[in-house]
Amino acid sequence: MGHQGQNTNSEKTKQTLVFAVNGQRFELSEVNPSTTLLEFLRSQTSFKSVKLGCGEGGCGACVVLLSKYDPVHDKVDDCTVSSCLTLLCSVNGCSITTAEGVGNSKDGFHPIQERFSGFHASQCGYCTPGMCVSLYSALLNADKTSRPEPRPGFSKLTLSEAEKSIAGNLCRCTGYRPLVDACKSFAVDVDMEDLGFNSFWRKGESDEVKLSRLPPHNCNKATRGFPEFLKMATKSGLNMESEGCHWYSPCSLEQLQRLLHMVEVNDGTSMKIVIGNTGMGYYKELDLHNKYIDLSYIPELAIISKDQTGIKIGASVTISKAIETLREENVDGINQEAKLVFKKLANHMEKIATGFVRNSASIGGNLIMAQRKHFPSDITTILLSVDAMVDILTGDRHENITLEEFLERPPLVSNSVLLGIKIPCWKSSTDVSSKTYTKLLYETYRAAPRPIGNALPYLNAAFLAEVSLCKNSAGIVLNNCRLAFGAYGTKHSIRARNVEEFLSAKFLDVGVLYEAIELLESTVIPEEGVASPAYRTSLAIGFLFEFLSPLINIHSEISRFWFDGYNGNFPFNDSKVKQNFDQFNQIKSPTLLSSAKQVIQLNEDYRPVGEPTIKSGATIQSSGEAVYVDDIPSPKDCLHGAFIYSTEPLAWVKGIKLKPEASVDGVSALISFKDIPGENVGAQTIFGGEPLYADELTQCAGQRIALVVADTQKNADIAAELAVIDYDKKNLEPILSVEEAFERCSFFEVPPFLYPEPVGDFSKGMAEADHQIESAVLKLGSQYYFYMETQTALAVPDEDNCIVVYSSNQCPEFVHDTIAKCLGVPGHNVRVITRRVGGGFGGKAIKAIPVATACALAAYKLHRPVRMYVNRKTDMIMAGGRHPMKITYSVGFKGSGKITALKLDILVDAGMSADISPIMPHNMIGPLKKYDWGALAFDIKVCKTNLPSRSAMRAPGEVQASFIAEAIMEHVASALALEVDSVRSINLHTYESLELFYKTSAGEPSEYTLPSIWNKLAMSSNFYRRTELLKEFNRSNKWRKRGISRVPIVHPVMLRATPGKVSILRDGSIVVEVGGIELGQGLWTKVKQMTAYALSLIQCGGTEELLEKVRVIQADSLSLIQGGFTSGSTTSESSCEAVRLCCNILVERLTALKERLVEQMGSIKWETLILQAYMTSVNLSASTLYIPDFSSMQYLNYGAAVSEVEVNLLTGQTTILQTDIIYDCGKSLNPAVDLGQIEGAFVQGIGFFMLEEYPTNSKGLVVAEGTWSYKIPTVDTIPKRFNVEILNSGHHKNRVLSSKASGEPPLVLAVSVHCAIRAAIKEARLQLHSWGGGVDEPDLTFQLQVPATMPVVKELCGLDNIQRFLQWTLGSKQGESAGCPV
């Protein structure tokens, strides 16, 4: 029951919610208004392609296409939305399309899905359905336009639109390049030769051939039909009542006011006003509301009108619609200057959030969040700069006030309604008779971790100025200006009125600009507690400088070109003045990525091994049909769990209480250590265990204390969030740093067999040195896994005291053993099943075990199925992530740069339990030995602290070690004033020194390919020429500096014992089980190829098609034991070898039969052979445990990378212009898979070195929460040009078919980006020193911290670099004519 649309009194009418999903009709009479579209789709339909990645609208995993029918214009509006934020009640009358609706295995795949697969653009596949829907929407909307018809097979989408179509979608696996190529393959203006490696064609083939092989796209058939039954449905809003909650959709302002009055009278009811509900992504609401009021159906709030006075935009108009409106060209009465202002407003708005958030977020909602909750809004800043007006209705009182006044008022009262805004048309006040040229200048700015959006800014700004060129003053006068700043850590956006007044009617010169900047510095001051306050202030200064500096000191140009009879046109057609003015007229929209090059040599010795086969399951991943743990339908009576965790680092737990409001919402039980029938163990390794739940003492903030079990995941999460823990902290002193651990001798023991041996005599090496650096210090922080699928498990009780657990993990064997131990049951009572994992990177190894164990314990105790999908915030708090550490080093070296000795003292923060941390010394020293240090000594201590346990993360210890090595190289080069590349080169190993440092794992001399890679990369990347060009660029540019760096890797890996099982079924199809888990790394694909190759050695008819007959099935801990870990980059090859051994056994069993049949029949087909084998009882199932030979179980991987970056000295923003990689894969088992691993690992490394901050509070509790504050790389932060060559060296006869690993080593190469940033900063510091400031010599031995974020980079370039430059300019003899070029 609900209130009907036309009457909000007591009259009620039965209304139902009607909508369609993939053409299927849904009609609901009761819905809890707080239910999101995502919750409904995942729990009430069979469509599971929509994934919960963040719950904030920040990742794109849950994106769907929302289609609305417009009966007035008889058209359908299609746009993407985040289903995790969209409330179900708001989709009344809409049609929803998920990835399954775009295309699927039953009805046929869409070309998007086929191209994503063919371009090798899906790895773990968890993000892929969302990517497909985002691109589908872009294609749909482009093809509906009146643009010219494209070439056959292409869409009307432009290259820039294709790139940006997935700009809001996050991917942790691929590195984005193949995703972007798949999108660009649809673009009308694409050069097909620029598209990357794919399975459709080879480089050099003609465009006609390429097009014939691409899955065809027909832009005339792109539009999907809107369901007829929805066209007939009522278009009025929905009014429903369910479980005491109401959803209202008023159709007029009068109805809205009556509702607001009713809520006011019934004090105590909780009301929520909604349009797109996107605010929920930022302000996580735990309180449930009684009344929801949807404003979408009120015509007065949806108004858009334009005339010569300006543009009116209603409060419920979406940001996307506002952008579209502001960009419209054909509007009568609006002058060109105003149009340019509107376009720049639109361009700035396009950097807010993501497309699928902008499609549902409203202009009014954004302003209300800024006014009521101090949301760091971009829209308020840019509208403030253009004197926007705000329309407010309170009761009968109608107000039209400035946006500035609106923001400064107390929070808008509940019965007030924001109706809309008006943006005035701006025009310069040109007076032809005065012989002055007057121009309106407008620009907006934002500094954010991601250039094109999906990140809150550190600061935003917008400036509107009217300037005049006049004959008498021979320069530019700033008549008036509006300077707006926001998002810098203040309650709301502001106008810098004191600076405006100072600049008003001023003749612009260096002195005026300097004074204005000093005034601004005292105006833009972030509030206390805001991160990087000085940086944010420097951004404000930088943006004002960037805006005004082109207008200064150009009187010589003016006098030269000035002429009488000025006719109103700008008179300086060939001058710098005109260039400077024209920059304000430009709308900048560069493409994100240039063409990339992939050089791959195919290996045809062991076909189909060595072929670039499409990843197994890629197409069903694209369609969303691939099943992950959380996609498994919930069994009957299934319950859901959520962890309650400690917020104190060391405390006695006296009690846990659930707040009363939580108890009514379906909570079934609270499970703690007291409920454990066996051992209190949540995870275990050879180094020790970690408790499932804290007993009386909690040992870190983030430790599990209990599990809330409820009827839904939402209710469990809310109850856990509202839980209150009673602590006693008396006489307890936590250890919260490695320094404290060192002082208190708090260490984990490292087994002697895992502790590496030193190399050479350190004292002797130091004595031989010409120079020494003593006790230099480095510090490294942590990194979060950010797998797209968070930790998840489902436990189902079975007969006879048994339990089946579905777990997303990298080591089912360890999960299995831990559960059995915790429940106190024999191992054969537990079965752990893992099919695929939505991203792991080490985080789904040990850290996945407690999640599965907690579900198993709850299911065992309650005799009901229990599942858990850990929310992103909790996952981030508990994950631990990469090991932080403190490094102290002393190094001796010759004047040539040759290092003679290195000593390292390293303190590794392991957290509260051992996990895998004792292996860190072993992991670190291997990659660190990539250089010939002469002598190498070290003391590595693994510290026990009261922080979450750290665990393995892709290249654990190895990426830190590589950074340490490069930091030392940089330090030595700076100390000697040498080029760092020459210092690296002189310290590369000879084969003799390689043998000394690596002993048995060095291999044969022919296997040492690094010297040839090093030289080849210099040639292929034009390293030396680019280094010279870069020097010229840096001489010519004051505010942009470039750096380039070339780094090598020597990365040891080790094979482990791995099981395999191959069974041939009666029809000739083949089933394979392996110990390795498919994480997205292509393990199943390589295993399938190996199976097909090894069985084809039987040499009978049809074996060339065996690949299609192979299926790799999920891991089952009772079916295949001793599975071990999927980690360390080598599980794919060891799984392949296990399978090859099985196949050899089967071929041997079949050979005698085959020979007999060939004698009888002349030739025989595979299917006939297998059928005969069944009839003669040949055993067609073989299993084995591959145990690598001790002499060859360890080997070295080689590679090198060159990266070039550009640093903006005004903001600290770094752009990676180009990266070139050469990586030795041996004879690649699958070059397409290995290429994806190389690119994806490298980009994950970029995250570590540039972007990803994982901060904690003073108690060690993680404060980075989800996508708002944790920034992984996106499509706009990867290298603009990304070239990769896979070296097919083939010198590795002891490897699995001569192959080598590719999963982790390339991540370490991302240090090249960090080193290039350092080189650019060095140039900036030299320039800064040249401007004076009292320092005799620039400090070029500075440490660039990790990650090198924008504030870090800007600080090293000089937070006061603009002031220093202006002071220098004013003080120099050329001050009057020097100018201020940006």
TrEMBL record:
InterPro entries: 2Fe-2S-bd, 2Fe-2S-bd_dom_sf, 2Fe-2S_ferredoxin-like_sf, 2Fe-2S_ferredoxin-type, 2Fe2S_fd_BS, Ald_Oxase/Xan_DH_a/b, Ald_Oxase/Xan_DH_a/b_sf, Ald_Oxase/xanthine_DH-like. Residues 240-428 form the FAD-binding PCMH-type domain. The keyword Transmembrane does not apply. Gene3D superfamilies: 3.10.20.30, 3.30.465.10, [2Fe-2S]-binding domain (1.10.150.120), Aldehyde oxidase/xanthine dehydrogenase, a/b hammerhead (3.90.1170.50), Aldehyde oxidase/xanthine dehydrogenase, molybdopterin binding domain (3.30.365.10), CO dehydrogenase flavoprotein, C-terminal domain (3.30.390.50), Uridine Diphospho-n-acetylenolpyruvylglucosamine Reductase, domain 2 (3.30.43.10). Its cofactor is FAD; [2Fe-2S] cluster; Mo-molybdopterin. Residues 15-102 form the 2Fe-2S ferredoxin-type domain. Keywords: 2Fe-2S, FAD, Flavoprotein, Iron, Iron-sulfur, Metal-binding, Molybdenum, Oxidoreductase. Coiled coil: none annotated. The keyword Iron-sulfur applies. Belongs to the xanthine dehydrogenase family. This is Uncharacterized protein. It comes from Hibiscus sabdariffa (roselle).
